[in-house]
Write a structure and sequence with these properties.
The protein has 23 helices and 15 strands. By secondary structure, it is α/β, with parallel strands linked by helices. Among the domains are: 242 residues, no CATH class; 107 residues, no CATH class.
């Protein structure tokens, strides 16, 4: 790997997140849902003024982050960045993700790079008096194992294979269904996962070294959260990225005052959240988050299992909280509001936020200048403005994570031979149409037209048979129609066989189209949502990661990139 170059182009918007189309291309349509316009560079200066009105426990935060990152083997650039958070006026650009196996899909890699680049851009724009530190929040509290455990890899044979991380590992030890993924083990479970992955990787001169590093990092990690953090620091620590894990007691203690406010103002928070949902519905859109109206948007830990909390009232009308899924047996545990406030005050590590309150908990600890979020996160934040107002805060600048697709050398050659450019090939409809057009042009006899003519002649001939059979017996025309159905069925079978053989004759071209599709839109999704960075490092070498980290995916004015980014390896 000698370098990477980048170009920008338009990409089809993800239909799963319709609000994001307006956020990116017509912000005025959704501006009332947010506090800052990411397309206006002046938003960052305005946000700095707002941040100056609040206080943070800077010394405690900086000290904890330096110690935690050091424990994960962080390089000097990360430790220096963590220490800078102790300075008055320092701010952060932050992004977050659940700790997926081997850092999860590629969008985690690109989100981390965007956090680093945006922090660098804003440091230059805001001047030497403002320290902007890049931080990645490890979403270790999440308990959706399915979301983080499935790993997809494109094999040397061009097939997409799945490998699963199983926390039970060789020991078969069971873990609670609602255990936070950051509590699940690395160790033997991670080694067993790597054993299953190994035969699916490209076997190059680089593969043994990459595989050995992954195994050592797993062996040095107590759980998935630590393994994730080590790998992220390996990829971006030299650029000063700092990782934060909310399951760490020191960080959780800093969230304690926010937890108290969330318990005390819980009903008002739910009302503000519903108003945010209604504002999105007024735009003709479906809100991204749908919650039980009694949900407290908090969890209580029972060991490593997260129990959802719901609001309730006693027979005397006193507010209480119910801990545990509804309908379970035995019934949910009941806590008074004072009991839960006491836990928030004295044992904040026993509480956890859900998707609704997680950003506010994060912003109570970090002076967040900007948050780098994917399309789902932008859709979440559109619901939260009222919740932030209850806490006396504003939403940070929400910077859209750049969409990125890697273009491998072989795929670029395929694109050229198929007469496509990367931008067009990212659209599955265009790719399908190009493949169909090629096969039709290469068809030596016009298979479809040939069989359409045959079917027409056959139907005309049978029409005469229908009339003649009626003179013999009134029931015979119906038999003739059934006979025609069998004949046309046989013709359709032959037509499909002809196309099958035609595609076989064109197998090299078909494989080129399939290789483009498997690279750019695997299983119909975007590359960045399916594949992982480490198989690419096995294929092209570990120097690929720092080379990709030099690709500018954030424009120099700090506004969102104008389109999708394609990076040629």
């Amino acid at each position: 790997m000698t370098g990477a170059r980048t170009c920008f182009g338009r990409a089809p918007l993800d239909s799963r997140y319709p609000l994001v189309g307006s956020y990116l291309n017509d912000f005025s349509h959704v501006s009332h849902l947010f506090d800052y316009d990411p397309h206006d560079p002046a938003s960052y200066g305005q946000r700095l003024v707002e941040l100056s009105e609040h206080d943070w426990e800077r010394e405690g935060l900086a000290g904890h982050l330096e110690a935690y990152n050091r424990s994960l083997g962080a390089p000097p650039a990360t430790l220096d960045a963590a220490r800078r958070l102790a300075k008055p006026g320092s701010v952060v650009v932050i992004g977050g993700q659940q700790p997926g196996v081997l850092t999860g899909p590629l969008y985690t890699f690109w989100k981390s790079l965007a956090v680093v680049e945006l922090a660098g851009v804003l440091s230059l724009r805001l001047g030497p008096g403002v320290d902007v530190v890049p931080v990645f929040w490890i979403g270790a509290e999440d308990h959706d194992l399915h979301e983080v455990a499935r790993f997809h890899v494109l094999t040397p044979e061009g097939e997409i294979s799945d490998v699963l991380y199983d926390p039970a590992g060789p020991s078969g030890e069971a873990y609670p269904e609602r255990a936070s993924v950051g509590h699940l083990p690395a160790g033997a479970a991670a080694q067993a996962f790597l054993d299953r992955l190994a035969p699916l990787l490209w076997q190059t001169e680089f593969t043994p070294g990459v595989a050995d590093f992954l195994r050592r990092a797993a062996a040095e990690s107590r759980n998935l959260g630590e393994w994730f953090g080590r790998l992220l620091l390996h990829l971006f620590g030299h650029l000063g990225l700092v990782v934060a894990n909310p399951l760490e007691p020191e960080l959780r203690a800093l969230e304690g005052p926010a937890f108290e406010a969330m318990v005390r103002d819980n009903a008002a928070i739910s009302e503000a959240f519903e108003r945010g949902r209604e504002s999105v519905r007024e735009l003709g859109l479906t809100p991204q988050v749908d919650k039980d109206p009694d949900a407290a948007n908090l969890y209580l830990y029972d060991g490593i299992e997260r129990l959802p909390l719901y609001r309730g009232v006693t027979g005397d009308g006193e507010p209480v909280f119910l801990a545990g899924p509804r309908g379970d047996s035995p019934g949910p545990r009941v806590l008074s509001q004072d009991e839960l406030l006491g836990i928030a005050r004295r044992e904040p590590g026993r509480l956890s936020t859900n998707v609704v309150l997680r950003p506010l908990a994060q912003d109570s600890v970090f002076p967040v200048l900007a948050y780098v979020g994917g399309p789902g996160e932008i859709s979440y934040f559109a619901l939260y403005k009222g919740i932030y107002r209850l806490a006396g805060r504003k939403l940070p600048v929400i910077y859209p994570r750049p969409g990125v697709t890697l273009v491998e050398p072989a795929v670029e050659r395929h694109l050229s031979r198929c007469g496509l450019d990367a931008e067009k090939a990212l659209d599955p409809a265009v790719l399908r149409a190009a493949k169909a057009a090629y096969l039709e042009e290469a068809d030596p006899v016009g298979i479809d037209a040939l069989f359409a003519k045959l079917e027409g002649l056959t139907e005309s001939a049978y029409a005469e048979v229908f009339d003649s059979m009626a003179a013999v017996d009134p029931s015979l025309p119906e038999l003739a129609r059934k006979n025609l159905g069998r004949v046309t069925g046989e013709m359709e079978w032959l037509r499909k066989k002809a196309w099958q053989q035609h595609r076989q004759n064109c197998r090299d071209a078909v494989r080129r189209f399939e290789a483009i599709e498997n690279s750019f839109r695997p299983r119909g999704d975007f590359q960045e949502r399916v594949y992982n960075i480490f198989p690419y490092l096995c294929k092209y070498g570990p120097d690929l990661a720092p080379a990709l980290a030099q690709a500018p995916i954030v424009p120099p004015d700090g506004t969102p990139a104008p389109g999708h980014c394609f990076i040629r390896i």
